[in-house]
Amino acid sequence: MKRANDDAQKSQRRDEILNQAATLLAKRDFEAVTLSEVAGNLGLVKGTLYRYFPTKEVLVLEVLERELQLWLTDLSGALLPGELGVQTLVDHLTQSLGARPLLVRLFSIVHVQLEKHLSLERLVEFKKSTALVMNRAASLIEAASPPLAGKGTNAVLALYELAIGVGHVTERSPLVEQALTDPVLEVFRLEFVPALRESLLWTFTGLAATGSSGSK
Fold this sequence. Notes:
By secondary structure, the protein is an all-alpha fold. 71% of the residues lie in helices and 0% in strands. It folds into 2 domains: 1-54, Homeodomain-like (Arc Repressor Mutant, subunit A); 56-214, Tetracycline Repressor, domain 2, CATH 1.10.357.10. The chain has helices at 7-27, 35-41, 46-52, 56-78, 86-98, 101-114, 120-144, 152-170, 174-179, 192-209. The chain is globular, with a radius of gyration of 20 Å.
């Protein structure tokens, strides 16, 4: 592949690397994706990729940051200021995450794999950018659903925590799929969107019912 020389070409090359990493991460576990494969699929030597992303963790973290911004854009279009009830709000939120399975998958590894291998500077930068996303999502939730006024941060944290847990429970390997063909094990066949919707509805209903002292 031709070398990127100017800023525009370098920005395009960076996007190509992120797109290729996202494609691979959507299909396979974090451990199974390598920088060599990302570079090879783009016709790059590994050293070129290192100039953009020195480690796999840094690369995947940027994929996550991009997915978060895309999700926030989706949410901004879906949660307009109004009078949404808790159930309708929960439907919008679960559908928004259901449409972004890669984001949910990356949620599950950010604390146990990505953050542990970052520099302090990059970790602080990531935490600050994530806080901005969280604050914006909290504002959207509060504006769209009056029952959660003053409780947007609590709602976003609950959504994040539940998405990680439900994501783990509902992502099944081929071996698990085979095991679940046994009718006795059907109780373990859960799907992400309905399982998240049910858990989130319980949580948000309780949150909406609490007094102002329970808000942040």
